[in-house]
Amino acid sequence: MAQVFAATKDWRPDVTFLLWHGLLPLVVAIGLLWVMESSGLDLWLADRWFAMEGGEWSLKSHWLTSDLIHHYGKQMVIAIAMVLPVLLLVSFRIKRLRPWRRPVGYLLTCMLVLPGFIAGLKRFSTVPCPWSLERYGGVMEYRHSLEYALAYGAGGNCFPAGHASGGFVLIALYFATFGRVQRSWPLLLPGLFIGWVFALGQQARGAHFLSHDLWTLSICWFGAFGLFLLIKPWRSFGVVG
């Protein structure tokens, strides 16, 4: 994934690129999600969180998880997204920024579309949060996520993981800079780091299982990959095409 190419309109994603960024991640995602759905790993991990917190979700309203990671983390992502339209406008005034207009537009599109799509899925989801389950002091029965997805009913609204999407969507930085910097793979790290901080913070609050976050990561990766192929941020808009 450290491939470097000239950012021109003549480049096209080749078989190697599609295998590394499409097929291989798809196989890995299906494998991991199948393990999560067919095993008790979700419950095992949630049980450990619950036990460490004294048999209750004591971190549900804690300043670290609720205020810093959840509230201010969301504000940080919103602030990043608000900078991008400004960069687009500035690119019309500063000539040397014009080659970055399409990558910035691509990144802004990802940050608007992907978390919004995940929020829409959550709105109609019947999957409950761990804190709503009988096992952890709630009232709802535990099922695997896909069993809830195939059932009709009210309640839930906890799948996929919405807050983590604000971090995981930043993996689009990798695609936005692909071919424009010598090594773009390190730009996967901010999205993965922030995404997993958000994810673990929500798991500690009892808001999500690990599988919810893996679904969100998968949606963000394939969404960013698909929009990369659609928007073509490797092209230098305003310069060569």
Please describe the structure with a list of short key phrases separated by commas or semicolons:
241 residues, mainly alpha
Description:
- By secondary structure, the protein is mainly alpha-helical.
- The protein has one domain.
- Helix content is 61%, strand content 0%.
- The protein contains 9 helices and no strands.
- Helix 3 packs antiparallel against helix 4.
- The chain is globular, with a radius of gyration of 20 Å.
- The two termini are 24 Å apart.
- The N terminus is likely disordered.
Topology:
Blueprint: H1 15-38, H2 41-52, H3 63-91, H4 101-124, H5 145-149, H6 162-168, H7 172-176, H8 188-205, H9 210-231
Helix pairs in contact: 1-9, 3-4, 3-8, 4-6, 4-9, 6-8, 6-9
Mean pLDDT: 90
Low-confidence stretches: 1-7
- Fraction of residues in helix: 55-70%
Number of helices: 9
The geometry reads as: globular
SS-based class: mainly alpha
| Strand segment tally | 0
First and last CA, distance: 24 Å
Question: Proportion of β residues?
Answer: under 5%
Structure described in brief:
The chain is mainly α. The chain has helices spanning 15-38, 41-52, 63-91, 101-124, 145-149, 162-168, 172-176, 188-205, 210-231. Helix 4 runs antiparallel to helix 9 (210-231).
